[in-house]
Amino acid sequence: MTEARPVRPGPRRTLSEQVILDAALALLAELGADRVTIRGIAARAGIAPNAVYTYFPDKAAVLHGLAEQLLGRVHDKQAADSALPWRDRVHTVARDLRNELLAHPGSVHLLLGNSLDGQNARAIGAAMLVILADAGLAPDAAARAAHLFNVYLLGSVALETTDQVRATDQFLWGLDRLLDGLVPCAVTPRDHPGSG
Amino acid sequence: MTEARPVRPGPRRTLSEQVILDAALALLAELGADRVTIRGIAARAGIAPNAVYTYFPDKAAVLHGLAEQLLGRVHDKQAADSALPWRDRVHTVARDLRNELLAHPGSVHLLLGNSLDGQNARAIGAAMLVILADAGLAPDAAARAAHLFNVYLLGSVALETTDQVRATDQFLWGLDRLLDGLVPCAVTPRDHPGSG
DNA sequence: ACCTGAACACCGTTCAAGT
DNA sequence: ACCTGAACACCGTTCAAGT
């Protein structure tokens, strides 16, 4: 017989939070938001429904993780390029986020229903703050403006999703009105801080 | 025995759509959005759950009617007063709608998830168009601006609801930035059209 | 036309048990 | 620690039947 070293009871890590979130994301992309159920996720991951509760306290926690998962798919290199005009950088972030949200119908309501306090959410918010600081906004104004940006992005896509229309013109028009309203807030406007 | 005149089969109109929507609204106000269920509505109305389907094809239709019901509770007299500055009139509409939505947590997601094409929704939208026209916006710009207003209002309240904060300062600040961005769109600005 | 009881096919979640 | 089968308390919706 083999040596009787203390065998750990049961498999140690055949699953993980990531496996569950991957299954949830696949379900969201293929079947829509209303099909993202605990039982559906478990079935796709090949486990029993209640096994999910080993990793997440409840469904809300799974959806919160799923929202974070979605934001992680957006990486903006152009947004970080401080040599570009700040309005263009905002446009880039807005377009990329909007496209990601429109690609997964229902994901907007996911973001609107969960606090955007995860790692990826904070990263995007921080990138936005940098852009707005480069635009000349004071820290508190930049924070308010970043929130305003979130409101506009999520609100726009939510209405686009329910009304079944892709109104890119309207989206960019509203974004520009919003940026126009922010311009007077810039105390030290500088388009190319790298050259100053 | 009494005369055998053709008695109509069953009670003719003991219920109505309005009774069901009233029950739904009461449930929303008292127990929250997630407790607005077909079975709950029926119980409060004193009928069997499937009786609801005599008046509405499915739950989505009930919620659509409920969204309309909510908007009907907002009546703005000040918004119609063309003697007031247009920014004040917008502020009034925004404040009243926001207060109504915050009073019923979950109602925001109700509005965001249903097309705002009902009678009350159109009335509010029309009032907004009048204000924006008085502000000097051309019809197409006014239409875009009205949509922008919807996006901002619903997006703001949605984020306020999920983050459990009532940030009135932030709300008004963002609204003003938005209105600032609209000012250049006014081709024929006139504050008091009644005096012209 | 309007309402009912009963059933169907689902949910999220919990519990006791097994490794 | 991790996973399972079974159950509980719900859902929305449909169907056949009654008035």
From TrEMBL, chains A, B:
User: Which organism does this sequence originate in?
Assistant: Actinophytocola glycyrrhizae
Q: Does the keyword Transcription apply?
A: yes
Instruction: Extract the DNA-binding region annotation as residue ranges.
Output: 37-56
Give the HTH tetR-type domain ranges. 14-74
- Which protein, by its recorded name, is this? TetR/AcrR family transcriptional regulator
Keywords for this protein: DNA-binding, Transcription, Transcription regulation
**What InterPro entries does its record include?**
Homeodomain-like_sf, HTH-type_TetR-like_transc_reg, HTH_TetR, Repressor_TetR_C, Tet_transcr_reg_TetR-rel_C_sf
Has UniProt tagged this entry with the keyword Amino-acid biosynthesis?
no
Q: Which PROSITE patterns match?
A: HTH_TETR_2
